[in-house]
Structure formats: structure tokens, C-alpha cells
């Protein structure tokens, strides 16, 4: 029997229709969800805003630490079920979904560590006549109601990165998961409540109407908007948020990699294969553009294509699957059109290039697609890696920097000077040396620049963004003059 999920908004029932959640692999019905209507959104915002305004009844730091500690324990107990659910609804292979769950659990622990170790600061006083007989320090307070709008590609870990920091910061939070993958979100919110979080402090809803979703994100009662998704929607929401609302936007990139002539290809290839085809390329920092020195490009291209052919594509719930489906059949059709266009315009197709089913697509390697092809200028968000030949490093860097996107980049080389030149000159928020563009640990800053995003992610950074530093100044004759 299919599970039906009601709204996780206390005191309301939606009059809207149900949303069906299906497996991207075989379109099997997984669950149905009540969709939020205007009254649901108003009720959720009203509840959350009243909680934030009632300063005397805010959750204490001790309570928040206890809740998140219990949540991590519950997640650990149910890790395999969480991984299977994420694989079924999102299409990421089970082996990778297990890694996602482990990261999510670690992310909750990271919230706790940040809460236990971060505080305000002491402001120097008593250093001149104006500051005589004074002391000053700051404390951290919750910024306000957090609205978290999430994406499908990491259905559990992204929610943890948005909701976990809100709870840690002491902010009431309303979360709207991607319509394709709400099961992991609802499960995580249920675990928070089971761990002791009052249900009003974290509300979740599926919204089947873009206008209603915009209303939620741009309401004047929102203190902080956390958005993960397309640049088109993200920048639109930022243009409409209420005065005073802060926000963080995480979009995508067209991640560049430079492979120098002295690179260790045996070490580089497994990393580039993993990051290029992980989750069928549906990651905002997936390896997409690889610039390889002309002296080794043919050898490199042949090797990466050979490795791509070996990847097992299919049912994400099977233990031996390397690459699962795209989230929707229309995405497989779009990727096919982009690849076909590139080949017709001169790219050499080394492997792949066509759908295997309505939603599964062959792992594809293209050699020297045109610089103006869609696969060269836009985020593919599919299992496609493009290899380009370059003659000198300046040329490679210039081509890597030619797009209005800036996220994570990488260089493979045995020469420290080459590595440092790329780090200094490439347009990116992070540069990996002898590591792929999708490398990440969850405490490091994670930021899309230019059209790729706004603000800085990473759990400690997100917690800080969701808080206000409030200063106290004390005048006392007992203090130094």
C-alpha cells in the first residue's frame, strides 16, 4: 500500500490536490503527499513568526544540543532505511546514498560541535577616554524565521544542511523539499520531532504551485531564505524577497578541470570518472569541462572513455549499480539533444551518447566539442564529460574562465608552480589540486560565485548566517578608566 503523507504544518489542512512521488528509474508510485495551499503557507509563517517573536520561550542552547544529539542517534539506527528511501526517490545508487546518509549524520554532529564551540566576541574597551570604564561583548541570537527551499539531488543531506543549522541557530524553520524527492525530508523532520523538537519549530510542506512557493519565500516575516536549485529561480526569488530578509543561494556551475602534461593520469582518472558520473552528473560541481594538454589529450581521452564504458547503469537500489537514472525522462531527452547538437557541430563522440531507457542515459565522453555548444557553455546536469585540447596553460585558464559561472575548479599536475598559477588565476571559489571538482567535506566553505550563487554554504557558515551578533555595552566605575 502506498504511503500517504499529510502536511507537517500544525493546525491546518490543505484543500489542494495530492502530489504523486514516483521512482525516477521505473516510475513506480512511491508515495502521495498533500500539497500546501495559501492557507497552509499563511498558517506556517504565522506560527513560525510568533515563535521567533516570543523571546522568553525560545529553545535554549541545551535543548537544541539534546535534540540534535538524539536525532543523530536515530539516524544512525535507521541509516539503511534512509539510504534506500533516498535511492528510490532520487535515483542515486544505493552505494552513494549510503555515503550521503553518513554525511548527513556527520552534518548533524557538526551542528552540535559548532553550537558547543562558537560564541560571540569581546570588544576592546578601556583603551581611550571614550571607552573608559566600559566593557563590551557580543552574543549570538537567531536571525528569524528560516525558509529552506531545497533540491532533489541530495534529498537527505541538503535538508540537513538547511534545517540542521536553523535548529542549531535557534530559528523556527519552514522547509519546502523538491517535489520529486520529499520523502527523505519528511523523514528527517519526523526524526527531529521524535528527538524532542516541538513540531511548530520545524514545519514541512510540498508545494505544487510556483506562485505559492514564491509567496512563502518572499513573505516579510521571513528572516533568512536558504535556496538550493536553479539559477533562474534563485535569482528571481532574491529580487523579490522582503526588505531585511537575508539569503543564501546555491545554484550550479560548469566545473573546469585542467590536466597538465605532467599529471599522474593513473591517479587522476578514477577521481575524474567518479566526479563526472556520480549521480549521473546531477551535482552542482560535477566534473564537466576537462582541459588536457595536447601532448597527452588523445591518451587521456581514450582512457577516460574506456573507464566510462565499464560503469554499470541501472536500478539505483541494486548494490552493484554505479550510475542511476536522471530525475525525469524529460531530462534524459534534453541531455540527448545537447549531445546530438555537439556531435553534429564537430565534437567527437568517444562513448555513450544516447538514452538506455526513458530516464537512464549512457555515460558519455565528448572530445573537443565547439566552444559555443550547450555542453560547453551550460551546466549539463547529466552524465556527460567534455575533453578539450589546450596548447599552453594561459589558454586553458582563459577558456576555463570564459563563462559567467564560478564554483569549484581543479588542476592535476606534479608541478607546484603550475598548481599555484592555476589557483591564482582561475575564476573559482575553491581550487582542488590533484583532486576532483566535487570534493567536499561539510565544514568547509562551499560557495557559488557570479551566477553560480550568493553567500557561503557549509554547516558552520550557514549557522553563522542564520544568527545575529548582538552587542552589550556596560558602563561601570568599577571597570578600568
Give the radius of gyration: 24 Å
Q: Decide which structural class fits the backbone.
A: alpha/beta
CATH class annotation of the largest domain? Alpha Beta
Shape from CA axes? Answer: globular
Number of H/I helices: 15
Strand-residue proportion = 15-25%
CATH architecture of the largest domain: 3-Layer(aba) Sandwich
What's the number of structural domains? 2
Q: Which residues sit in consecutive blocks of at least 5 with pLDDT less than 50? A: none
CATH topology of the largest domain: Aldehyde Dehydrogenase, Chain A, domain 1
Average pLDDT rating? 97
Please give the number of β-strands.
21
- Calculate the terminal CA-CA distance, rounded to whole Å: 75 Å
Specify the biggest β-sheet: 7 strands, mixed
Strand order of the largest sheet: 13-14-15-12-11-17-18
Helix content: 25-40%
Q: Considering the protein shown, what is the CATH homologous superfamily of the largest domain?
A: Aldehyde Dehydrogenase, Chain A, domain 1
Description of the structure:
The protein has helices spanning 38-53, 61-77, 79-90, 94-117, 157-169, 183-194, 210-218, 231-240, 265-277, 297-309, 329-344, 374-377, 393-400, 416-425, 459-465; strands spanning 3-5, 18-22, 29-34, 122-123, 134-142, 145-149, 173-176, 202-204, 222-228, 246-250, 256-259, 289-293, 348-351, 364-367, 384-390, 405-406, 408-412, 430-433, 449-450, 453-454, 467-475. It is α/β, with parallel strands linked by helices and 481 residues long. The protein folds into two domains: 3-251 and 452-471, Aldehyde Dehydrogenase, Chain A, domain 1; 256-433, Aldehyde Dehydrogenase, Chain A, domain 2. The strands form five sheets. A seven-stranded mixed sheet has the order 13-14-15-12-11-17-18, sandwiched between helices. Helix 14 links the parallel strand 17 and strand 18. Helix 3 crosses helix 4, helix 5 (157-169) crosses helix 15 and helix 9 (265-277) packs across helix 10 (297-309).
